[in-house]
Fold this sequence. Notes:
globular, three-stranded antiparallel β-sheet, alpha/beta, 6 helices
Amino acid sequence: MNQKQDFFTALGGRVKFRHGNYNLTSDAVWLAAFAAGKKAKTILDVGIGTGGAALCLLAHNSNLQATGIDISESMLAECAENAKLNGRELELIRVDIFKWKTNRTFDAVITNPPYFKGSAARHNAHHNADIYEWTQKCLKRVRPRGYFFTIVDSAVADQIIAALHAGRAGEIEIRPLFGAKNIAERVLISARLGVKTGTKIFAGRQMNDEMVLRDGLTFGENVLY
């Protein structure tokens, strides 16, 4: 990701983001590359923030119908500006995933959950969230045989996997991402609702992999494995 004028760019300049209270990180780019490997027509980004993952995913597949939810009005306002900057359409809804009363389901749900601990952020987004419950609420928005995708700190990966099993999701894929150390810093996890296929753990990748962050390669389709 490169800084240019008053905004950041990702995927070799294909996606732009204005400076704001919460700037794009590599987590969002990795999550989009991960989710792009499966076929979906509708996606929900839970905790969309300023739109990092959703807008990168739309850069991979412009035919997606993307919806994003967040509890922060200021984050959603910045997300709308970023969508406009990229000429993309996003349906944005201000709602708490823990309290959302809806029957809507989607082909895929993506989320970069608030797994960090500490004081509340300035943008009033979720913090110190129950990741197990967060995952279960996300699964309720996945249509039968649809997909769930997330990227989290490796320290909370067990909570995600436990929630997936409790929610009757299978075909779980686990892909560790490494930084400078030999311990994974982040973990990509996907699952499919109502499918009993077992779990696969793939070889890890480096978090600074320019093939993903700059060149925009995605998983599946004989690209990344």
